[in-house]
């Protein structure tokens, strides 16, 4: 009798415990997820509906509405990134030159110019991280050669960089127009190569004593230093990590302080050609092309050779990662038709 009573009480307590657990589970179950059975082609399936919270994928889709501008931005955000990165570089660089020149040195010195360009490059790199912050057609070209950057992107990157530099120089001109008018001696006077000329605010001109060979070599050596340091700072294993931008500030400052006097250290087609084109349209005339014995082509061409050589030096003597230099014949075999194919690819099936 006592045993039966104990069994009944144990059974009741077990049922009570199960019921309590079910009640607790129903109280603490998530109100956002409901399970329902649905039939699909005769098969029993369980469907989960989420009422309050969406999945990360759904939220991502909602954050990208199917709008025309959203599609344009998604397609063009890398060129936009290069445009605004270069815009910032020239805004600071040409801006500091304008302040120093137009104030006749009262509001800055040559070292102020180096500071301005260094800061401009550093901030431009921060602003254009989406695209890799090339900010220089020669750097983009070199990355295509040594780092497998897609060649199809090179034209759009270069165009974006040139347009960014051109637009920024127009903003600098608009900001300093009154001072330029006074410095030049009138609103309709724009000159190149005189003591009161302001063309040098926007693009570079060589020192009068420079020969064509000297002009080319000056830009070549500065561009070589630039590219070697870019690959050194950006090395995934031994680089500067999060301090790359600060490192580039010191690189630009150092190049300007040590190698900038003779040619103005353009070291960048976009930095020089964009503002030069803008100054031509602003009334500085044909002399923007003919000055310095037609110097204009030197900063357009020399940086490509310098950057290629700087990257070659780094990859030959330091870099051990993926590079044409670290292939048979230091990449020269890739120039031979079929030279880049492995034996497995060349052998018949």
TrEMBL record:
Superkingdom in the source lineage: Eukaryota
Record bears the keyword Plastid: no
Membrane topology listed for this record: Multi-pass membrane protein
Signal peptide: none
Entries under SUPFAM superfamilies matching the protein: Aquaporin-like (SSF81338)
TM annotation in the entry: 83-102, 114-135, 156-176, 216-234, 246-267, 294-314
Principal location class: membrane
PANTHER family listed in its UniProt record: AQUAPORIN OR AQUAGLYCEROPORIN RELATED, AQUAPORIN-9
Protein name: Aquaporin
């Amino acid at each position: 009798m006592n045993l039966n009573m104990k069994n009944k009480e144990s059974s009741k307590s077990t049922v009570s415990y199960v019921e309590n657990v079910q009640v607790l589970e129903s109280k603490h179950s998530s109100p956002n997820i409901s399970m329902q059975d649905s039939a699909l082609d005769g098969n029993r399936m369980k469907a989960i509906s989420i009422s309050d919270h969406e999945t990360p994928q759904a939220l991502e889709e909602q954050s990208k509405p199917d709008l025309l501008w959203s599609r344009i931005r998604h397609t063009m955000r890398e060129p936009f990134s290069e445009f605004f990165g270069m815009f910032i570089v020239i805004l600071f660089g040409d801006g500091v030159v304008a302040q120093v020149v137009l104030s006749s040195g009262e509001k800055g010195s040559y070292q102020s110019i180096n500071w301005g360009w260094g800061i401009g490059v550093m901030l431009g790199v921060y602003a254009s991280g989406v695209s890799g912050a090339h900010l220089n057609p020669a750097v983009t070209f070199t990355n295509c050669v040594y780092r497998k950057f897609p060649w199809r992107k090179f034209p759009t990157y270069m165009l974006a960089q040139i347009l960014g530099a051109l637009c920024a120089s127009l903003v600098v001109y608009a900001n300093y127009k009154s001072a330029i008018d006074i410095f030049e001696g009138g609103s309709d006077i724009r000159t190149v190569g005189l003591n009161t000329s302001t063309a040098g605010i926007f693009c570079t001109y060589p020192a009068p004593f420079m020969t064509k060979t000297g002009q080319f070599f000056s830009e070549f050596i500065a561009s070589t230093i630039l590219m070697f340091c870019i690959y050194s700072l950006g090395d995934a294993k031994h680089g500067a990590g999060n301090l790359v931008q600060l490192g580039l500030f010191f690189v630009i400052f150092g190049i300007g302080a040590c190698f900038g006097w003779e040619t103005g250290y353009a070291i960048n087609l976009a930095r020089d050609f964009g503002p030069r084109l803008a100054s031509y349209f602003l009334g500085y005339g044909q002399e923007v092309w003919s000055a310095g014995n037609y110097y204009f082509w030197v900063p357009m061409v020399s940086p490509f050779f310098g950057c290629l050589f700087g990257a070659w030096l780094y990859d030959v003597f330091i870099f051990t990662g993926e590079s044409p230099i670290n292939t048979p014949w230091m990449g020269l075999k890739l120039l031979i038709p079929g030279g880049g194919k492995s034996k497995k690819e060349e052998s018949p099936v």
